[in-house]
Structure formats: C-alpha cells, structure tokens
Amino acid sequence: MIIQLNADRSLNINEGFGEKLKVSIWKELARFTEHITRLEIHLSDENGDKAGPNDKKCLLEAHLGGHQPVVVVGVANSCEQSVNGALDKMKASLEKVLGRLKDH
Questions:
Q1: Tens of pLDDT along 38-79?
Q2: What whole-number distance in Å separates Cα of residue 15 and Cα of residue 35?
Q3: What is the DSSP letter of 69?
Q4: The domain that contains 48 carries what CATH number?
Q5: Contacts of 99 (CB under 8 A, 6+ apart)
Q6: In what order do the strands lie in the sheet with 70-76?
Q7: What are the helix and strand counts (H, E) for the chain?
Q8: In angstroms, rounded to a whole number, what is the distance separating the alpha carbons of residues 101 and 104?
Q9: Domain count, the chain
C-alpha cells in the first residue's frame, strides 16, 4: 500500500508529523493492506489563516485494485482529530465494501 500525503498551503505539515501520520494510518488500516493499492491523505484548513471551530479537514481516498475508490471525510478542530475521525469512517466503509465483494 502506497500512502500519499497532500496538504494545502495554509497548513504547516513538517516531515516528522507527516511520517508519524503515515505510520499511524498504516497500523490502523493494516488488515486492509492486501486490498488497498494506494491511500491518499488530503489535509486542509477550511478557513485558511482565520481561526474557527472544526476547520481542519481530512479527506482519505483508498484505491482498491479494480474497484472504485472509497472516499471519506473527517472534520474537526485539529488535523489529528480530523484524521482520526476519517480513519474511523474509512475502516467502517472498507469493511462494508469488502464484505459485499466477498459475498459476490
């Protein structure tokens, strides 16, 4: 599974945080690695430089070999919280999608 991290210009994502994030996501999605060919992480700040509640957004896009990508979004006060929310949604979505594929 290839993990790509993309962040908008208003977020200051240092290399250490990016690597820590990739390792954390890899661990959380380890049971799905045989199905996911690529996972894209898109982090953004919806308000740019302005402060505001729930303005950090994490979009996760899991590409499954030969199938449509699974896309989920998490929104929260911090990047870490938005990633965790998106990860919870991704795990549930992948279980659902892969369960359907297994049944067919």
A1: 999 999 987 766 666 678 999 999 999 888 999 999 999 988
A2: 27
A3: P
A4: 3.30.160.100
A5: none
A6: 2-7, 36-45, 56-64, 70-76
A7: 2, 4
A8: 5
A9: 1
Can you read off the two tokens belonging to residue 90? Answer: 């991704």
Say if CB 1 and CB 29 are below 8 A apart. yes
Q: Is the C-alpha dihedral spanning 1, 20, 14, 57 positive or negative? A: positive
- Whole-number pLDDT of residue 65: 85
Q: State how far the Cα of 60 lies from the Cα of 86, in Å rounded to an integer.
A: 7
The residue with tokens 């982090």 is 43
Range of the domain at 15: 2-103
Give the amino acid at 42: H
**Three-state secondary structure call for residue 102:** helix
Nearest to 74 by CA among 93, 99, 48: 93
At 3, list the tokens.
């993990």
Retrieve residue 89's tokens: 């949604």
Q: Is 48 left (phi over 0), alpha (psi -120 to 50) or beta?
A: left
